[in-house]
Amino acid sequence: MAETQESVIRGICGRFANDRTRLMDILLEAHRRLGSVSGEAVDAIARAVSLPRVEVESTLSFYAFFSPRPRGRFVIRLCNDIIDQMHGAERVGRAFREELGIDFGATTADGLFTLEHTPCIGMCDQAPAALINDKVVTNLSSDRARELVESVRASGDVEHMKLTLGNGNNSHPLVRAVVRNNLRERGPVIFAPLVRGTALRKALAESATEVIKSIKVSRLRGRGGAGFPTGMKWEFARAATGENKIVVCNADEGEPGTFKDRVILTEAADLVFEGMTIAGYGVGAATGIVYLRGEYAYLLAFLESLLKERREAGLLGRNILGKQGFDFDIRIQLGAGAYICGEETALLSSCEGKRGDPKNRPPFPAQSGYMGRPTVINNVETFCCVARILENGPGWFSSIGTNDSTGTKLYSVSGDCDRPGVYELPFGVRVSDLLNMAGAQETAAVQVGGASGQMIGPKDFGRTLRFDDLATGGAVMIFNKQRDVLRVAKAFMDFFCEESCGYCTPCRVGNRLLRERLGQVADGKGSPEDLAYLQKLGETVKATSRCGLGQTSAQPVLTTLRSFRSEYDRRVQTRPADLLPSFDGAAAVAMAESLAQRRSVYFGK
Amino acid sequence: MSGEITFTIDGTEVRGQAGQSILQAAAMASIYIPHLCAKRGLTAWGSCRVCTVLVNGRPQAACIQPIAEGIVVENDTEGLRAMRRELIEMLFVEGNHFCPFCEKSGNCELQAMGYRLGMLAPQYPYFFPVRDVDASHPDLFLDRNRCILCARCVRASQELDGKNVYGFVGRGADKHIAANAANGLVGTDAAVTDMASEACPVGSLMKKRVGYAIPIGQRMYDTKPIGTDIESGSARAQAGGGR
Ligand SMILES: Cc1cc2nc3c(=O)[nH]c(=O)nc-3n(C[C@H](O)[C@H](O)[C@H](O)COP(=O)(O)O)c2cc1C
Ligand code: SF4
Ligand code: SF4
Ligand code: FES
Ligand code: FES
């Protein structure tokens, strides 16, 4: 038995040339074949790729989709993020538990099923949603959950689940997903038709510096959240000394409430690949990597097939479109369940086969990124804009949107509204306009930019969505008057505690402290001093954290303290000076009694 | 990349060499910036964040941030002291630090930092985590209750000993220090004479059978606060110009 495992592992490592930088792929494949990666398997991998054992263990233990312990043949991961909670995820969870006879975190005795929770899987517009192995299931109800378990049990295969396939490419034979695009508004940039190769052909007719100039003139800013000017980023990478430059597409899309890249990859992936190829030409790179979040593994075969078609059409590979000396190809790197890997330097660590720890800056990726090479990293949507700018011209692009924010933006709209989904709109629309389009009523709060964004109330609904006002990577989560804003903030803090990489003190510890105190306040067990405590703690986490995760993770607390102060004030209570509201006397007595194993003489009832 | 760089720390003009971090240049100028994970002779790591300073108004980790001409660095301000105290308190409540009976007490950089920054008791609730002790090795032990995840052992083993004894396993709150063997430290090539065995700032990676050898009152930080060597310039003399 141990023998066969060793030979399976040796085979897998061999397929990746025993290359330690491909450890992610090795571990993913080992899980597909063996279900989990045991201690002996870790030893075998370490031997095969010549890594210290602890480094293999380090990577293995970092990602939620990996496991050192045996799991069921079918792993059900139910999203328990806020949007799913609002749409009945708890009922669905109960149905799964009852049908399987196990709790979350457990595996059935027959070794068939493991049940887990997972943060946002990018299906918020069709929540509650879950993954069963690589398959996505959406719009779940208790009945549907039971039915799915039964059908997997009966057929012994996820491929035979009864599914109604979604629209567009979701029903492509290589995708076969129930996912719906919910594409509510098509704009001229991302979701206009593209004739494969048009933009690239125009780019290759210019010099590389002219291409970068076009991007600069268009005033394109990154769509991944930070809004860095794309042309400037490319210029740095082009100017950087170093061989074998790299272009990376960030398709990790892990920000709760964000799912627009999913729809791009389903319906406009060609535009993405075209943009990446143009970037390769612009900065002088021959290699492209798409970092695709593990939750979107259902799109992998389809995306690979598109890459193959592009190779066959001479749009990837050597001497592209006959341009002598311009070689460029793309590979897809799958992630394995770690939000932090969307942070660009953590993403690079992951691509190098390591745990997804962010790297220290400087050096910045444009100087020294993937394997120390100059690297350009852009969001999926950014690459689409690039291709369109080359196709239609920078002037055309910059005429759309506002002065500081040119072009269109995709919004992932979810929560309390009639028409959740993806909207492509020019920059500068008002929040209230978007709420109307989405059919939102009685809206009390909107979370702009996902968990790390900001929570705004009605007095800010007249503000506009653009970089210099309300910036967002695309998430717009809507909460009506029935929702408890503090509970929403608490759910976001749960998310950050789960997803912190653990590298730096403020993020690893501070977020847990924030969550704990916020929870107390939300439960009505807070005192007025707790608000100052939360404010100060939040500011410290924000100021001292090492990467963007910790620098924004206190936002749910800080922005609700700002916009929903009355919600806090309403709940905290003043008590006599010597009594903390969080102190539960009866519980303390009960605990003391159980430790002492006798009733209290003074307090016992 | 040659040449001197001039900048200020709390208004004092400091000269450094291109390529130095703010922390290094400050130490050369006998200015102490509190730090825990940084250690002379090891590459910078940037995890504790205690060295946070303001550079032209923006928070940066002094051990990572390179010096640049004309930057204005704020270090010893009430605001930064308060933030650093909060970070130290976080490290205290995250682990199980029972100083009164810890072998490292008095020689511990975390404890000394608590004193220097004026921490009385943590304002945060304790986590009281359950953590494993690895006592498998004949000469060394790893008491994870006191580990602050600074990676000084990891780096010392790799960079100074040419070994790979230590590494981190787990993510977020589960992150912990681990040995490069399934059966713990005993399965590795760790030796008591390794530089890594001297690297731990707290009482986590310790040598067996030497605890409490120096009586209370005569331990390193019993007499002088942490950072005194830098402020007195003796650290500079020791480092022989480098850091
Ligand atoms: C915790 C964290 C998660 C992130 N996740 C993503 C992501 O999923 N997709 C993305 O494009 N950018 C993400 N970013 C931003 C990236 O670090 C980076 O700024 C971006 O990919 C750059 O591309 P752009 O300039 O085209 O926006 C994340 C940042 C942080 C701090
Ligand atoms: S390691 Fe230091 S801080 Fe921790 S218990 Fe020991 S003396 Fe106290
Ligand atoms: S054992 Fe000591 S040196 Fe190693 S990471 Fe923990 S605290 Fe740092
Ligand atoms: S899929 Fe559950 S919140 Fe996004
Ligand atoms: S000393 Fe700089 S982060 Fe620890």
Question: What key attributes describe this structure?
Answer:
heterodimer; A: 605 residues; alpha/beta; Glutaredoxin; Rossmann fold; four-stranded mixed sheet; 42% helix; B: 243 residues; alpha+beta; Ubiquitin-like (UB roll); Alpha-Beta Plaits; 10 strands; binds flavin mononucleotide; binds iron/sulfur cluster
Polypeptide structure, described:
The complex is a heterodimer of chains A (605) and B (243). Chain A has 605 residues and is an alpha/beta fold. Chain A has helices at residues 2-15, 23-34, 39-49, 53-60, 82-86, 89-100, 142-155, 198-204, 208-218, 230-239, 260-267, 269-283, 300-312, 344-351, 380-392, 394-398, 431-437, 485-499, 505-522, 529-544, 548-552, 555-563, 565-571, 585-596; strands at residues 74-79, 113-118, 130-132, 135-137, 183-185, 245-251, 285-292, 329-334, 375-379, 408-415, 421-426, 443-448, 454-456, 475-480. Chain A has a six-stranded mixed β-sheet. The longest helix of chain A is centred in the C-terminal third of the chain and has 18 residues, at 505-522. Chain A is globular, with a radius of gyration of 25 Å. Chain A starts with a helix and ends in a 9-residue tail after the last helix. The relative contact order of chain A is 0.09. By secondary structure, chain B is an alpha+beta fold. Chain B has two domains: 4-76, Ubiquitin-like (UB roll), CATH 3.10.20; 84-207, Alpha-Beta Plaits (2-Layer Sandwich). Chain B has helices at residues 22-28, 78-94, 109-116, 152-160, 220-223, 228-231, 234-239, and strands at residues 4-9, 12-17, 52-55, 58-61, 72-74, 133-134, 140-143, 166-169, 176-179, 205-207. Chain B has a five-stranded mixed β-sheet, with helices on one face. Chain B has a three-stranded antiparallel β-sheet with strand order 6-7-10, with no helix packed on it. A two-stranded antiparallel sheet of chain B has the order 8-9. The longest helix of chain B has 17 residues, at 78-94. Chain B starts with a strand and ends with a helix. Chains A and B meet through helix 3, helix 4, helix 18, helix 19 and helix 20 of A and helix 2 and strand 8 of B. One FE2/S2 (inorganic) cluster (FES) binds at residues 35-38, 46-51, 61, 63 of chain B.
